[in-house]
Amino acid sequence: MPLLEIKDLSIRFGGLQAVKNYNLTMNPGDIRGLIGPNGAGKTTVFNMMTGILTPTEGQVLLNNWSIEGFQPYQIAARGIGRTFQNLCLWRHMTVLEHVKMACYSKITYGLFGAFFGGARRKREETQMTNKAMDLLALVKLDQFADQLVGNLPYGAQRRMEIARALATDPKILLLDEPTAGMNPEELDQIMEIIRLVHGEYKMAILLIEHRLKFVMELCERIQALVFGEVIAEGEPEEIRNHPQVIEAYLGKEIEY
Amino acid sequence: MTVFFQSLVNALQWGSFYALIALGYSMVYGVLMLFNFAHGDVFMVGAYISFIVATALTALAAAGTIAIPGWVVLLLTIVCAMMLNAIVGIIIERVGYRPLREAPRASAAITGLMIGIILETGVLAIMGAQRAKFPSLIQSVTYDVGGVFITNKKIMIVLVSIVLMLALDQFVKKTKWGMAMRAMAFDYTVVPLMGVPANVIAALTFAIGSGLAASAGCLFGVAYPVLDPYMGIVFGWKAFVAAILGGRGSILGATLAGFLLGFIEIFVALIFPSTMRDFIAYSIILLILTFRPHGFFGEPHSARLRL
Which InterPro entries match (chain B) (predicted)? Predict the structure, then answer.
């Protein structure tokens, strides 16, 4: 049984068919890429997978469980974690708090316990703090744990988002343009982190990316989405040489 | 000097009410970016719930069913009123505001005004037009501290308020719900993707604000035992002023501004005739806001919930 199965996912906004018959099957430990020009519908696919948008047709199955009819928070708690194309941060909160916030669904003490259940609360809070610190160490931000997130440099904020997504204990991690706006040095760092997450946690990862070099180095298989439809699917080498992809997406930019 | 300290004590008590109510305004604004203009009436409902609970408990005690001292009755009343009023707050959020989550802010403001009228007239219909007399739960004891008269009620009111404010501070700072509230202040979309049920957090915010308003209502009933269905209007507006003065979304700001408002009112009344109290007091506050339009702890471009 595959970890994730997406069957004929389609969404229509009025007259615009934003995504049409999108299919994807992923097994545990797979790392896949989704490329395509701006407005191709890549983020829309993510939004449907996380319950922000309701597809017009098709279904998303996570371990054979259909997400249909569930709220985004329930889907997140069941194991689909994601980061965002534009950073979505809570400026008044610290780095550690961001990551701990994502542990919300794992914390079991109740309202009463928050005030009176000393031992259990303390134990759970310590557990969560330790877990969050481990994740921050993974993305090399543990020394900034108590900083307000707004004070971090851009690349570090991006890494924090990955730690936050991991804190929800996802079975599959969706990364929406993790390298957007990064300089080459930050790029290497983020590649190393994604490799680490993939290697150590055997995490299934689906990656939206604009930088083809990056996505081709990381992903085992890649899909190319143009105007909401998958025009090509295959290994990096195939995608790189696929005439339709070159025409629709790469244009003249085949520098390698 | 004794007059000064006497006024200080009075101002502390008076400010406690404003601060407790202002916290509800500011928290809801900080999390959901809307002012709950029915909040003054939520305070009034809290006072009436306290009145009903207190009356029932006193009747039970008088009938000899249960023998409990007045202090315990008062404590029970506060706790019960806070919990019941929290439910009122949750209903208001569910029925009044949640359907308008994506609507323009003006719609939410008007909803607040309507809910306020519904609460006022609802209480009027149920409780009648005559003023309710809050039962005297504890014997008033006056201590003479170097010419300054302090009653046990005043001490109790200020203490209970401070305990509640500290509890709120810890709640927002330390617990997962507090963190979720502060995160929700930034968006409704991302927070659920971290596994946080945004609607539950919104309801909880209203519940806490209404609970605090009920504690203010109960304490108010202890200090000024006459209640009427329209008592929440002016009180609500003044607490709203305190929330703005403190800086929208700021918990510390709302608390301090609530007390400051109490101080200004009491000290203005000390110097000027009491008929001019609000005229002068609120002119002063208007002046403060001219120079600090975002309030003491407010930020120009953000009104997010913070400590």
Answer: ABC_transp_permease (IPR001851), BCAA_transport_permease (IPR052157)
CB contact under 8 A, B176 and A73: no
Q: Are B22 and B239 in contact (CB under 8 A)?
A: yes
| Measured distance CA(A169)–CA(A173) in Å, rounded | 9
| Residues facing residue A12 across a β-bridge | A17
Kindly report, residue by residue over B248-304, the tens digit of the pLDDT: 888 999 999 999 999 999 999 999 998 899 999 899 999 999 998 888 887 766 667
Could you give the domains of chain A?
A: 4-250 (3.40.50.300)
Q: How far apart are CA B122 and CA A93, in angstroms?
A: 41
What size, in residues, is chain B? Answer: 307
Asked if pLDDT for residue B145 goes beyond 80, the answer is yes
| B208: its two tokens | 């806490």
Q: Which of A98, A43, A96, A47 is nearest to A76 (CA)?
A: A47
Q: pLDDT, tens digit, for every residue of B215-246?
A: 999 999 999 999 999 999 999 999 999 999 99
pLDDT of residue A91: 81
**Residues of B contacting chain A (CB within 8 angstroms):** 167, 171, 174-177, 179-180, 182-183, 185-187, 189-198, 302, 304-306
Chain B positions in Cβ-Cβ contact with residue A125 (cut-off 8 Å): 174
Pairing of strands A57-62, A4-13: antiparallel
What residue ranges of chain A have pLDDT lower than 50?
Answer: 254
Shortest distance between the Cα of B195 and any Cα of chain A, in A, equals: 4
Chain A residues with CB-CB distance to B180 below 8 A: 101, 104
CA distances from B270 to B6, B10, B238, B273, B286 (A): 10, 11, 19, 8, 20
C-beta atoms of B183 and A90 within 8 A? yes
Residue whose structure tokens are 């090399």: A140
pTM: 0.88
Largest CA distance in chain B: 60
